[in-house]
Design a protein that fits this description.
The protein has helices spanning 35-49, 95-107, 120-137; strands at residues 6-9, 13-19, 22-27, 32-33, 54-60, 65-66, 85-92, 113-117. By secondary structure, it is of the alpha/beta class.
Length: 145
């Protein structure tokens, strides 16, 4: 079965279904992460996933500007229990983004697996392992093998 990647451009990021069950959220330099942007990315993620549980690689460039209000909201709460995501790896390029990401996940623990790192290769490898583990443990429950 062949796979064709698909991308949806939002105001603040490129959202790409890079493989079955694998979404990449790449924030654009020079934009500001804010609540409307997060919502737009969420809608793009849902459209790309098309009801399939996915893992997501989120890449935040160096010196990314963000609205502090994005840290006050559990962005994944509305979909809790729907199994839309099984793992998220956030790749950060500076200490500020790392601190904000780790603080966010400590304030809002998720039901899916999370990792924050400064290494994109490490994040991709970790997500691949999560996909294999989750596919084995959830066989027949809609997660792509």
């Amino acid at each position: 079965m062949s796979f064709t990647p698909r991308t949806i451009e939002t105001r603040i990021a490129s959202m790409t279904l890079a493989g079955p069950g694998f979404i990449i959220q790449r924030f654009r330099e020079g934009t500001r992460i804010d609540l409307p942007g997060f919502q737009e990315n969420r809608e793009a993620r849902f459209a790309l996933a098309n009801g399939v549980t996915c893992v997501m690689l989120s890449i935040i460039p160096k010196d990314m500007d963000f609205d502090v209000n994005v840290t006050n909201v559990d962005h994944f709460a509305p979909e809790r229990g729907q199994d839309t995501l099984s793992a998220v790896a956030v790749v950060v390029a500076d200490n500020m983004a790392e601190m904000v990401s780790k603080l966010y996940f400590s304030y809002f623990p998720q039901v899916f697996r999370t990792k924050v790192t400064d290494n994109e290769e490490e994040a991709r490898a970790w997500l691949e392992v999560q996909m294999v583990e989750l596919a084995q443990s959830q066989e027949g429950q809609g997660f792509p093998a």
